[in-house]
Specification:
two-stranded antiparallel ribbon; mainly alpha; two-stranded antiparallel sheet
Length: about 375
């Protein structure tokens, strides 16, 4: 007998008793991980906006001396890049909101491709706008445009690939999965490797903490996790295995991906917290302007609490990523025990036939009225 679970998977007989409580716990833990991550992500970018606004308001009297109040004094390319960066920050806040809301949908109805659609779209637009802003800055500084253009292209491919994977049949799913893998490759191996952060020399040496990926996870771990997820999407799109086996393999690989990105979130965000003084220095980079006051913004603490929440979400996410592996192990154990219960050694012998008797010499079966054994010819008493 098969029973359909709330997440769409099928369970056999006794597997329900052991798997369903853990599956319910996984959804609950995943909900809190997503909720904490979404709130922390929003707080971090709200903190960025607050820092910029505070620096402008607290320095507006001094900035007027440089003519910054007149729009004609600000280069048009800088205005354009700031507009794209602002759009990227807004999309980042919306991404955090969608993660928080979608985690509730995943808890109530199960995690599916439709559940994360809004988050992937917001993530794609966030990356696209951010890399457009980087492209304008690097063009104005007469630097190579290869990395920012690849960043924009990766954002577009991620959006198109996910839509193809979500709405397509088997062939379109495979194409969409390949596009998402290409997107991750371009984004991390080309865009981030030679992007604006690399040009400015940002990283562990300057800021005191590792350079993060767009998910605020340690860059290398985030890259490996997304590569595994994209590879899993390709594997799931190939009709080479049965549906149940493909789901089992997908759960295992996605759990490993979740463990890696959660570990990266923990590592990065708890590395930032002790280095908050260096973040203060970064926020006060206006000191390079002659006679400009070096003001440390008070709103930096909004980002600080955002990093704290992101680190906590990594801890919860680590637990949520381990639970599906435990469920798979319990299901495998249940199936093995069920197989052992129906092996021939476990089947009791049939009851003796009441219409027969047995030879006193060779124990062969014979009719009740037989005088000689049909096997050894021994005369029966």
């Amino acid at each position: 007998m098969r029973t359909v679970a709330r997440d769409g998977s099928t369970l056999k007989g006794g597997e329900i008793d052991s798997a369903m409580p853990l599956a319910s716990q996984t959804r609950n833990v995943g909900y809190y991980a997503g909720l904490t991550f979404g709130v922390g992500y929003c707080l971090t970018f709200i903190g960025i906006i607050a820092i910029v606004v505070e620096l402008i308001l607290r320095n507006r009297s001094f900035m007027s001396l440089y003519g910054f109040n007149a729009g004609s004094q600000i280069p048009s390319w800088l205005i354009a890049s700031m507009v794209f960066f602002a759009a990227g920050v807004i999309c980042a806040i919306y991404f955090g909101v969608t993660v928080a809301t979608n985690s509730k949908s995943a808890r109530d109805s199960g995690l599916g491709i439709d559940t994360i659609a809004s988050s992937v779209s917001a993530f794609s637009f966030m990356l696209g706008f951010a890399w457009l802003g980087v492209a304008i800055l690097m063009a104005a500084m007469r630097l190579s445009l290869v990395s920012p253009v690849c960043g924009v292209l990766a954002s577009v491919l991620l959006f198109i690939g996910f839509r193809a994977y979500r709405t397509g049949v088997s062939g379109s799913k495979l194409t969409g999965a390949i596009l998402m893998l290409v997107s991750v490759t371009l984004l991390y191996f080309v865009a981030f490797k030679g992007g604006l952060f690399s040009v400015l020399g940002f990283g562990g040496g300057l800021l005191g903490f590792p350079l993060p990926g767009p998910l605020f996870s340690e860059l290398t771990l985030e890259l490996i996790a997304l590569m595994i997820s994209a590879g899993c999407a390709i594997f799931f799109a190939l009709p080479i295995l049965g549906e149940e086996l493909r789901k089992t393999v997908a759960i295992i690989f996605l759990s490993i991906s979740g463990i890696l990105v959660s570990a990266g979130i923990i590592y990065f965000n708890f590395s930032v917290v002790p280095a908050i003084d260096k973040v203060n220095s970064l926020a006060g980079l206006t000191q390079w302007i002659p006679s400009f006051p070096n003001i440390v913004p008070y709103s930096i603490w909004i980002m600080f609490f955002g990093f704290i929440l992101l680190g906590i979400s990594g801890i919860i996410g680590l637990v949520a990523a381990f639970l599906p592996l435990i469920i798979s192990a319990k299901q495998l154990s249940t199936r093995t025990n069920s197989y052992r219960r129906i092996t021939p050694e476990a089947v009791p012998p049939p009851p003796p036939d009441a219409e027969a008797k047995y030879c006193t010499k060779c124990r062969a079966s014979m009719p009740l009225d037989a005088i000689y054994c049909p096997k050894c010819a021994h005369k029966q008493p």
